[in-house]
Design goal:
Blueprint (H helix, E strand, L loop, with lengths): L3 H9 L6 H12 L5 H14 L3 H12 L15 E5 L7 H11 L4 E5 L9 H5 L11 H11 L1 E5 L6 H11 L7 H14 L4 E8 L8 H17 L3 E8 L7 E2 L1 H12 L5 H17 L6 H13 L2 H12 L4 H5 L9 E6 L4 E6 L1 H11 L15 E4 L6 E2 L4 E7 L5 H10 L1 E4 L9 E7 L2
Parallel strand pairs: 1-4, 2-3, 4-5
Antiparallel strand pairs: 5-13, 6-9, 7-11, 8-10, 8-12, 9-11
């Protein structure tokens, strides 16, 4: 007979569990036969003692098969998705997905919401009035077939074990566990029906993985699981010490993404977007190399094809196309305040974690899953690392509709900037690349 306490004790003692053990535990928990308190104990034992690559693959498979696994083989083309481990100002998916789809690679993207200082793709999409991320599976399939792109949230049918376990991890201090993070990500991505995956593993002060060692360990775990399931995978470790782009906050990031799709070149944002898009187009076998994929991605933007694909996506998912074509028509937050440089010098650093936390205070993020997002709240940076400023020049502007202590948040934003008399050496955005092409 299956006894969950035996598995908890064995994992507590550092023993390896068989695939059968893990399958039995996850199946029983999904169907309500293992209570939360026992799963909490198992999660903490896993947090403390880790999982082998075989155990992580078994956990992923169990979570994957707790719900439906989509078969998209009847839809032409190799289906490729991208996943980021989360960061401040990380709006890459909003720009990248329509670019890749415009190049002929189908993009089935099931995204998440923001929690804490890290923003979520779904919240950014929903800042477009009327945009629906809640599509059923038949609609998801048909839209991917007809348009080549679909961007939705996790449904009740997709990896329900992950949904239950993540909620538990969030309140038991077991979120930052590499094998649990990897299994959670991959169970959802594999359930989408993808053929290939590009990973953006963030590393730095504003990332969940603060050190290169942890980022590399997470990237390797994610790649091992991908390969175990027969999926080609590319992983980039990228810097998350300052926000990506200049906008932080849902509509603010959406508006910046629209401008980029229309051809505006924001250096760090588009460098990362084109790199990841090139990898996706390569995995989709529309290009013979990532470099050729990048060329096609740049061409899709310059020709207007990527923006048109985004407009079609918004339209088919119920969003207000007029607002997308005319971003200035979107009402701004009622309260704004500009923060000025306290001294002359170069911006030495911009603490992305502090900026992300300040955006949450303004209403751009959630402290709990039940909080309501203010789509127009957030922060616009006017200066970033390496820029020279004079005393009194604007360095950031905050936006909010909430009754918050604006002077306090403004002080937090100002304190996120560090200044230097010497120009800081530019730090690389793209740090390491790993790939396994099957």
């Amino acid at each position: 007979m299956f006894h969950p306490v035996d598995l908890i004790i064995r994992k507590r003692n550092g023993d390896a569990l068989s695939a059968g053990d893990i399958h039995a535990l996850i199946d029983a928990y999904t169907h309500g036969k293992v209570p939360d308190y026992q799963m909490s104990a198992f999660l903490m034992a896993t947090f403390l003692n880790g999982l082998s690559s075989e155990e992580a693959a078994a956990l992923t498979e169990s979570m994957l098969h707790s719900g439906i696994v989509l078969d998209l083989s009847d839809i032409p083309g190799l289906k490729v998705d991208k996943h980021s481990t989360g960061g401040v100002g990380d709006k890459i998916s909003l720009i990248l997905a329509p670019i890749v789809a415009a190049c002929g690679v189908p993009v089935p993207m099931i995204s998440g919401r923001g929690l804490g200082h890290s923003g979520g793709t779904l919240d950014k999409l929903e800042s477009i009035p009327g945009f629906s991320v809640n599509l059923d599976i038949p609609t998801y399939r048909e839209q991917l077939r007809s348009l080549g792109i679909v961007m939705i949230g996790q449904t009740d049918e997709i990896a329900p074990a992950d949904r239950k376990m993540y909620a538990l991890r969030d309140v038991t201090g077991t979120v930052e566990c590499i094998p649990l993070i990897a299994s959670s990500i991959m169970s959802k991505k594999l359930a989408e029906g993808i053929d290939g995956l590009v990973l953006d593993v963030k590393c730095g002060k504003g990332a969940f993985m603060r050190t290169m060692e942890d980022a590399e360990k997470l990237a390797k775990t994610l790649m091992d699981i991908s390969v175990a399931f027969g999926k080609s995978v590319v992983a980039w470790i990228t810097a998350m010490d300052q926000p990506l782009g200049y906008a932080v906050g849902n509509w603010l990031e959406m508006e910046e993404s629209i401008r980029c799709l229309q051809g505006e070149h924001i250096e760090d944002l588009m460098e990362l977007t084109y790199t990841l898009a090139g990898e996706m187009i390569f995995l989709g076998k529309v290009a013979d190399s990532p470099e050729e994929g990048r060329y096609l991605a740049e061409k899709a933007v310059s020709s207007g094809a990527a923006f048109e694909k985004f407009v079609q996506l918004v339209d088919i998912q119920g969003g207000d196309v007029h607002v997308v074509k005319n971003p200035d028509s979107m009402p701004s937050a009622t309260m704004q305040e500009t923060i000025h440089a306290p001294e002359a010098g170069y911006v030495y650093s911009v603490d992305s974690l502090s900026i992300g936390k300040a955006a949450v205070q303004l209403g751009a993020g959630r402290r709990t899953k039940e909080d309501t997002i203010d789509p127009t709240a957030g922060i616009i940076l006017h200066r970033k690392e390496g820029d020279y400023v004079h005393p009194g020049q604007p360095i950031a502007t905050l936006y909010t509709n909430q009754h918050v202590h604006i002077p306090g948040v403004a002080a937090d934003i100002k304190n996120a900037f560090a200044f230097s008399k010497e120009k800081p050496e530019a730090r690389p955005l793209l740090m390491n690349r790993y790939a396994t092409i099957l």
